[in-house]
Design a protein that fits this description.
The chain has a five-stranded antiparallel beta sheet with strand order 1-8-3-5-6, covered by helices on one side. Strands 2-7-4 form a three-stranded antiparallel beta sheet. It is built from four helices and eight strands; from the N terminus they run E-E-H-E-E-H-H-H-E-E-E-E. The protein has one domain: Sandwich (Jelly Rolls). It is α+β, with helices and mostly antiparallel strands and 139 residues long. It is elongated.
Length: 139
């Protein structure tokens, strides 16, 4: 088995910035030379997430609205007792959405559905410089 690790650097606009990283991940898969295996996509941070969606304008509005209904900003979060930084909801959102995604690689390509893209979600309340690690494993 071969393992190749690549990295994607992102500068986000702040809370609920949703960035399509599919092409960046595919580029790392191609650079790896691995034809069949898996690509692990992992964001390094406790207030960000990786997922898949159809990256279109409607869903880019629906996702933040759904997160606000599920994990409202204006509720009390015990995290504030420790850091007083106003992002307790960001940590809870990230915990439920998760920092990683595993995607099959077939014939040197990500195996995604027709309308499925890999997205990075910024959940923190401010702009951030982020790092996404992509580790490709296989033959």
């Amino acid at each position: 088995m071969k393992v190749h690790t690549g990295e994607i650097s992102l500068s986000t606009k702040g809370e609920l910035d949703i960035i399509n990283i599919t092409d960046n991940v595919q580029k790392i898969v191609q650079e790896s030379g691995i034809k069949n295996g898996f690509a692990l996509v992992f964001c390094t941070g406790s207030t960000c997430a990786i997922s898949t969606t159809e990256y279109e304008p409607g869903l880019r509005k629906d996702i933040p609205e759904a997160l606000e209904r599920l994990f409202p900003k204006n509720k009390y979060y015990h995290h504030e007792e420790t850091w007083h930084d106003g992002n307790g909801h960001s940590h809870v959102r990230a915990t439920f959405l998760k920092p990683d995604l595993m995607v099959p690689v077939t014939n040197g390509n990500l195996t995604l559905g027709t309308w499925q893209q890999i997205i990075f979600l910024e959940l923190d309340i401010r702009r951030r410089n982020r790092r996404v690690v992509v580790q490709v494993m296989g033959l």
